[in-house]
Write a structure and sequence with these properties.
This protein has about 230 residues and is mainly α. It is built from 8 helices and no strands. About 50% of the residues are buried.
Length: about 230
Amino acid sequence: MAEFDLPKRLVAEAIGSFFLFAGVIGSGVMAEALAGGNVALALLANTIATGAILYVVIVMLGLVSGAHFNPAVTLAFALRREIGWCAGGAYVVTQIAAGALGAWAVHVMFDLPILQFSTKARVGIGQWTGEFVATFGLVFTILALVRLRESAIPTAVALYITAAYWFTSSTSFANPAITLVRSLSDTFAGIAPADVPGFIAAQLAGAVIAVALAGWMFESQASAARSKSTD
């Protein structure tokens, strides 16, 4: 990532966020249209498409920007001082803006009103707990593999989100930017704007706890390995 300057990293974040968010929302629209009212089938189709596009954008752009596409991930690396706060802020703005463009592109492709707001209620302790668990697991997976097996991150993250769609009550948004963008689409993947703050609060809490636990679990071993290498 250090080989690429900030403008190139931001463009990578924009491209990845555009296709990831379009993939989530667009596959939801297509799945709902073709599932004939079978919500489980629609969710399964939405899940497979999301996991697939997530793997692709991470592999394609990970070496450029780190493939965050998610303010919770950016926050985690900022807390670890692996990205500056100014650069991190630019990442987050880019993720949201490009993601919104992805949602609007989906609306154009499917002949829907471009500007709209979701009416799908997603609220309550069960939903918030689902988002806390989903985001904690996502961030912890990334931070663990950064230390243990970095090459496995694309596969592990894609598989984690695929699984978390089904084992969390919220269907694993696990991303403040996509939560905000999904409020701009009154489709299968949407969330009512009034319910966005609760989701984002739970996501950020999950990310912070994951950073703390991963730091405690892995940093001492990393420090010991660095010390041994200099002996």
